[in-house]
């Protein structure tokens, strides 16, 4: 049986990749994908905790996270489309009317 | 069968939320049938909220756990539900006055977006399970992303909602990671179970700091506290003004309800309150996290606001700072601090909504919220100008306004002998002095400076209804500053969390 630590290690690495992606990438859609990666790493850690604790509530939370992440992606893409229609770009660096 | 009867029993106590859901659907149907701009949808929404307020009133003294420990009803949640209902009714009225909204082709849809945010806020105020907390937080957040970007053709609006969404999604991701670690450590999502586990098992402080800072990222984003505040000024400037007012008052109040319940319940050593103080598990210093967030919010909010040119942006930084003051009530971790926080929240509701209503009126007439453009405006709209001065003074906490009462109780709570928060009280007071500078900058621009073109500009008239709304907001701002007994009494009786006595 694979130890819990390996799952948690993988999950934290994925989470870190997601956070770095949000901070470094400049394309709004890629930023979105990085956020999805963050959510999936959380799902992995919840499922592994849940399996090792022998408790299902963690897995229930995972289902809710998947559903909410889908809703978030739908709204996010709608907002990106609205932004693209207004500005003709989804590059975060060029989205800069509002500052300070 | 047992579960089924429990659900049936819970639904009886779920009537405030159910009436909000029903109203939401009614608004949706009414919008489809009417298909043109009319105040009917707004009236339906307000009527539904009043029905919900009645059901909330019926629960005034109830303490009950619903849906197998997902939600609770307690005076604390009831107080917040009143706050959400009152503020969203006022905001729904604001929608009828704002040209930004009236000119939009889908004005009616705002009503049910507002209602679904209110539903999310209701659940946030009463959830005691990490699963429910996350879901209600997301319900409120997803709705507010849409609200911020709903003027689809406005560049500023879609940019602000984009920024809001990215910050929101990333910080709720960080919060969830914290929750998953907490779950893995304690084996439960129920905050009472978690507190029982933490009380009986020694927990490394580093772990508590890690998870709690991660969870605070998600909640601090909702209350727009530093360092999770970056979205606030942009969203406040970009979204339509009534939406900004809604986010500043209702949505952040919901965040405060959640952060208070989570932090006060999770670290309880015992459910007994001794001398008004919550008994925190020995050795866990969660207050330090809140102190850092609170002090940083006050300082950043107040100092950056000084340089703002846009009134909405200035109010954005001001609400960051006000959030910092409110968190001070949480640090003390006793009923006095909690009471002070509730008093401040209700004071904040009146004065902030008032300031935003004046902003709506000015933006309607000038088409801009640039403070430079408001030179000499006080002479052209004397009554509105004076009202703005009152709201600004109230926000900075000048005596004889409701803002002073809020600050007075916060400072009193912080100066509890032996708690060692005297320095914190001093920081809070020094910050209000700084805040006076930029609040008065608006007043100065309106009354003490003359417009550049020397021609006499004509006076600006508003409709009678807008004067009535303005007076209705002015009365509580001044009246509760002089006669604050009722507000204090209500807050004192509401500083009761479920399962803690």
**What is the makeup of the main sheet of chain A?**
none
Name the helicity range of chain B: over 70%
**Which H/E pattern describes the elements of chain B?**
HHHEEHHHHHHHHHEEHHHHHHHHH
Strand proportion of chain B, as a percent range, falls in: under 5%
* Sequence of strands across the biggest β-sheet of chain B: 1-2
- Architecture per CATH nomenclature, i.e. the level-2 architecture of chain A: Orthogonal Bundle
Mean pLDDT of chain A: 89
Range of helix content of chain A: over 70%
Biggest pleated-sheet summary of chain B: 2 strands, antiparallel
What coarse outline of chain B follows from CA principal-axis ratios? globular
Seen as an oligomer or otherwise, the chain set is: heterodimer
Account of the protein in words:
The complex is a heterodimer of chains A (100) and B (501). Chain A has 3 helices and no strands. Chain A is mostly helical. In chain A, helix 1 packs antiparallel against helix 2 and helix 2 packs antiparallel against helix 3. Chain B has 501 residues and is mainly α. The relative contact order of chain B is 0.09. Helix content of chain B is 74%, strand content 3%. Chains A and B meet through helix 1, helix 2 and helix 3 of A and helix 7, helix 8 and helix 11 of B.
Spell out the key features of this protein.
heterodimer, A: 100 residues, mainly alpha, Helix Hairpins, 78% helix, 0% strand, B: 501 residues, two-stranded antiparallel sheet, 21 helices, 4 strands, globular
Quick recap:
The complex is a heterodimer of chains A (100) and B (501). By secondary structure, chain A is mostly helical. Chain A has helices at 4-24, 28-53, 57-87.
Topology:
The complex is a heterodimer of chains A (100) and B (501).
Chain A: H1 4-24, H2 28-53, H3 57-87
Helix pairs in contact in A: 1-2, 2-3
Chain B: H1 2-12, H2 15-34, H3 40-58, E1 64-66, E2 71-73, H4 75-97, H5 99-102, H6 107-126, H7 130-148, H8 155-186, H9 191-200, H10 205-222, H11 231-238, H12 241-266, E3 268-274, E4 277-280, H13 287-305, H14 311-331, H15 335-366, H16 377-380, H17 382-396, H18 402-414, H19 422-447, H20 464-482, H21 485-494
Antiparallel strand pairs in B: 1-2, 3-4
Helix pairs in contact in B: 2-3, 2-6, 3-4, 3-6, 4-6, 4-12, 4-15, 4-21, 6-7, 6-12, 7-8, 7-12, 8-10, 8-11, 10-12, 11-12, 11-14, 12-14, 12-15, 13-14, 13-19, 14-15, 14-18, 14-19, 15-17, 15-18, 15-20, 15-21, 17-19, 17-20, 18-19, 18-20
